[in-house]
Structures are given as C-alpha cells and as structure tokens.
Amino acid sequence: MSRHQYDLIQCMKQTGPSTGLVCQQCDGRCPICDSYVKSTTRVRICGECSFGHLVKKCIICGNGFEEGVPSYYCLECVTLEKDREGCPRIINVGSSRSDMMFSKKKAEKSS
Ligand SMILES: [Zn+2]
Ligand SMILES: [Zn+2]
Ligand SMILES: [Zn+2]
C-alpha cells in the first residue's frame, strides 16, 4: 500500500484545543507516518481545521464521517517531536481537478 504522494500537503498551522478526528478507516493511524502501532499523543488541530465543514472530515484522508474517531500520534513521532510541528491535517486530498489547478496557479504567483 503506497498512499504517500509527493504532493501531500499538511496544514501545519499552530494548533488549538481541538482534537483531530479521523474516519473509521483511519482509526488508529498516525497522521504523520501512517503507523498503526503505539498510539501515544492525541492529535490537536488548528482553529481553522476545527471549524465549519472541516469538522466532519477525516484529517488524514479527507473522507466525510458522521462520527469521527480521535486521532493519535505514534510514539515515534512524539519522540521526534513531530506532534509539535503544527496542525497535521492533510489539506489537498479529495480536492477536485480545478482546485488543484487553482492552487498551482496560486503557488506560481506567490513564488
Ligand atoms: Zn507516527
Ligand atoms: Zn489546520
Ligand atoms: Zn480517514
């Protein structure tokens, strides 16, 4: 299973008090390294990602859900302090083709 995409982007904004929720499929999966073992620290997400329609979307795969499951970082990522780097929500998964073109254009402009 190779889910890793080169264009995967994480939010990385400063985290707030909200817990990152995942769908049933991603239950137990570390949002940083995809590990399913040694879940250690509860994931916190930023204010933007815990607001509006994003609340009912998996922070890892972007799937919508009725009831999310709290997400946890694995022991390895906590040891490497990746849990402190910021909001781990993946922000470019499940976006439409036009969205992708838009973000590309934006990137070109800002560079
Ligand atoms: Zn991990
Ligand atoms: Zn965020
Ligand atoms: Zn998911």
TrEMBL record:
It comes from [Candida] railenensis. It comes from the Eukaryota. GO terms for biological process: mRNA splicing, via spliceosome. The lineage of its organism: Eukaryota, Fungi, Dikarya, Ascomycota, Saccharomycotina. Belongs to the PHF5 family. This is Pre-mRNA-splicing factor Rds3p.
